[in-house]
Every structure is written in structure tokens, then in C-alpha cells.
Specification:
The structure is a single chain. This protein has 338 residues and is α+β, with helices and mostly antiparallel strands. It contains 12 helices and 10 strands. Strands 1, 4, 5, 6, 7, 8, 9 and 10 form an 8-stranded mixed sheet that branches. Strands 2-3 form a two-stranded antiparallel ribbon. A hairpin with a 2-residue loop joins strand 6 and strand 7. Helix 3 runs antiparallel to helix 5 and helix 6 packs across helix 11. The chain is rod-shaped and about 120 Å long. It starts with a helix and ends with a helix.
Length: 338
């Protein structure tokens, strides 16, 4: 037996260690006692490394086993006590309301789109959603765009090869509808459109548009005006002013543009309305006879009107957005307000 082993009273060592383990009040104190009496730098570990005879080695290993058992038992005892305390004191009342989790909601553009759909469904119109990649035939030719029209320019429209393009408006849906079935037709096409517009407070190169078409016998400009007034009052309320201005569009004659008074400035003039007090909504007019001829319909028998407005513009007017770009930037500080 070495001098290190012989110099220690192992019975006193065992009593002291068991007393420290039994007196530990927390798992941390149990771990502290374990390191002190069973750790690699403790007297017991040092003695086990220095032992040279069988009897002493068996006695020290037996002591180590007893202390390890005492450590495990005290740790389990404290963990059970913690669990019992949690079960009795930290009671959860399952009848109390839980924490309210943040929920998402519809984007302002989607909300506006559904408002528009509801307004037209109430008038008996069908809602149509067509392809976004079109041909020049349907986007321009059959809508009676002249060859020199600026919309045909590569500076205004996103073109692909072989006469394909990203539609500049949802008007091609009207041609598809006229080719698919005989009038009467009352339909609204809603979807994304694309133009090479400079980005500013009221323009964006990607936007949503709703385009309507009504074809029947005896329709007049008064029917168009009444329809647009009904829809605009349904969206903006009766207090907003609406006016109509004469204009030119290739596929309607006569044509007019509806404007709505600016809600940002109350019609007084601001940056959003370019200090005019009014915001342009889109275009409208009676269907040009050439369009009927392009789809094989008899212009002497049928009359109709068409109209189109940007949904972002409607949302901007409805929610009084000063800048249309806020609808596309995805800033939650803005979008969560609606």
C-alpha cells in the first residue's frame, strides 16, 4: 500500500462524502459533491491510481460504488421532488383562454379584387380568368389596335419570340369569350397585366386589372355609365365624386375615362393626384364595330360596351394609399393595417 492510500482515513472520508451528498438541496449541489469526492482530482481517484495490492483496491472500488449509488439516488430524489412540486403548485387551468397567435389576412389587392367580384356578381356578370401570355393577334390585332399604336412598341410591352407577349391588359379575354359563344355576354376578366411603365406613385410595371364586356341587343352608353357608377359607389361609397371624360381607345367608340376624386387630399390637389384632385380609373366605351367583325359577330345586330380599371388603382383610392408602390413592397408595417 502506498503512503497516499495509507494517509487517508477512508471510513471518515466515506462518512463525510455521504453526509455531503445527503445534504445537497439541488441537483447542482449533488453534482458539486460528486466532483469533490468522486472526480478525477479527488482523493479517492488518486488513491485508486496509486493502489498496489488487491485487498485495498477492492475496498476502494467498493467505496466508490457506494458513493456513486448515493449520488444517483439523491439526484433522483431531488428530481422527483421537483416534479411533485410542479404538479401540485404549477397547475394549468385548461379552461382559461390561451395566448392569441398572430394570424395572417388577405392582401389589400386580394380584398379589393373580391369586392369588385362581388359587385359584378350582384349584377349578373360572370368572372373569367385567362392566360397571361398572349399573342399579338389577341392582344392587339383583334382588338383593332392600329399598326402604329405605341402599345405595340417594345418600349411599352414585354415581348417574347414568335409574336407572343405578356398581356398588357385583360381585354384579350373579351375576344376569347366572343369567339367561344354567341351573345348575349356579360363577363368580367380579372388578372395580372404587364407594361413597361416607369415606376411612380400611381404606376407599376406589374399590376392587376379588371375588364368587363357586355354584349346584347340595344345596349347604350347610358348602360355603361350606370354600370360603372354602381360599381364605383359599391367600392368607394356614395361620398366619393365620379366624373367621365371623353377619350380615345382603339377598341371602343365612343370612349370615355372615369375618374374618382382623390381621397388623400379630398379633391384639393396633392402629389398622388398630380394636384388635379382626381385619379384616373381606366378606360371604357362602346365596343367598336371592327371588334365585332374580327370575331364574326354582326355589328348591326349586337351592341356592347367594355371597360377596364387597375385593381391597384382601386385599392389606392379605396384605402387612400399615397403611393401605389406600397402594395408591392411587402412591408408588414403597411400591410397589417388593412
Amino acid at each position: 500500500m502506498s503512503d497516499t492510500v495509507a494517509a487517508v482515513d477512508w471510513q471518515e472520508y466515506a462518512d463525510e462524502a455521504q453526509s455531503a451528498i445527503a445534504g445537497a438541496a439541488t441537483p447542482a449541489e449533488v453534482e458539486e459533491a460528486r466532483v469533490r469526492y468522486l472526480g478525477r482530482k479527488g482523493e479517492l481517484a488518486q488513491a485508486l491510481r496509486a493502489v498496489r495490492d488487491r485487498e485495498t483496491g477492492m475496498a476502494l472500488n467498493s467505496l466508490r460504488d457506494r458513493l456513486e449509488t448515493a449520488v444517483g439516488a439523491r439526484r433522483d430524489e431531488l428530481e422527483r421532488a421537483d416534479l411533485d412540486r410542479a404538479l401540485t403548485q404549477e397547475v394549468v387551468d385548461v379552461t382559461l383562454p390561451g395566448d392569441e397567435l398572430p394570424l395572417g389576412h388577405l392582401h389589400p389587392i386580394t380584398q379589393t379584387r373580391r369586392q369588385i367580384e362581388d359587385a359584378f356578381l350582384g349584377l349578373g356578370y360572370e368572372i373569367r380568368d385567362d392566360r397571361e401570355v398572349e399573342t399579338t393577334v389577341y392582344n392587339f390585332d383583334k382588338l383593332a389596335f392600329d399598326p402604329w399604336h405605341p402599345a405595340r412598341s417594345h418600349r411599352a410591352t414585354f415581348f417574347f419570340e414568335e409574336g407572343r407577349l405578356l398581356r398588357t391588359e385583360t381585354s384579350p379575354s373579351q375576344i376569347h369569350a366572343l369567339e367561344e359563344r354567341e351573345p348575349p355576354i356579360y363577363m368580367v376578366s380579372i388578372g395580372r397585366c404587364y407594361r413597361r411603365d416607369a415606376i411612380d406613385a400611381t404606376h407599376y410595371p406589374i399590376f392587376h386589372q379588371f375588364e368587363g364586356l357586355a354584349v346584347d341587343r340595344g345596349l347604350t352608353l347610358a348602360d355603361l355609365k350606370g354600370t360603372l357608377l354602381h360599381v364605383m359607389r359599391a367600392i368607394f361609397g356614395p361620398d366619393r365624386r365620379v366624373r367621365f371624360r371623353t377619350h380615345y381607345f382603339p377598341f371602343t367608340e365612343p370612349s370615355m375615362e372615369p375618374d374618382v376624386s382623390c381621397g388623400i387630399c379630398g379633391g384639393e390637389g396633392c402629389r398622388t393626384c398630380r394636384y388635379s384632385g382626381w385619379l384616373e380609373m381606366g378606360g371604357s366605351g362602346m365596343v367598336d364595330p371592327r371588334v365585332f367583325e374580327n370575331v364574326g359577330a354582326e355589328p348591326e345586330e349586337w351592341s356592347g360596351y367594355a371597360f377596364g380599371c387597375g385593381i391597384e388603382r382601386v385599392a389606392q383610392l379605396h384605402y387612400d394609399f399615397p403611393d401605389i408602390r406600397a402594395l408591392w413592397e411587402g412591408d408588414l408595417r403597411v400591410l397589417t393595417q388593412f
